[in-house]
Design goal:
By secondary structure, this protein is of the alpha+beta class. It has helices at residues 48-57, 63-67, and strands at 4-5, 11-13, 16-24, 32-38. It has one domain. A hairpin with a 7-residue loop joins strand 3 (16-24) and strand 4.
Length: 79
């Protein structure tokens, strides 16, 4: 999942390090869920807040532009 790390410092839960990750909701990324996940699960994405916001507001349509991959193709129109 694509989320926002709340802080670089992990918290200890049950003797294990966890990170707080905010997962916004689409299409209005002002709410969401705060999840504490094992620190080993967190992998940095070189996206930036503008990219994350664009991906959520577009409901994933712009993901290829920010996360690599291909841009969406225009739909073919019949004359």
């Amino acid at each position: 999942m694509l989320g926002l790390l709340t802080t670089q410092a992990p918290v200890m839960l049950g003797g294990q390090p966890f990170h707080g990750v905010l997962v916004p909701t689409a299409p209005v990324p002002v709410g969401g869920g705060l999840l504490f996940v094992p620190a080993a699960w967190v992998v940095p994405a070189d996206v930036g807040i503008e990219g994350v916001t664009s991906i959520y507001v577009s409901m994933g349509v712009t993901a290829g532009e920010y996360l690599g991959g291909t841009r969406p193709r225009a739909a073919a129109h019949s004359p």
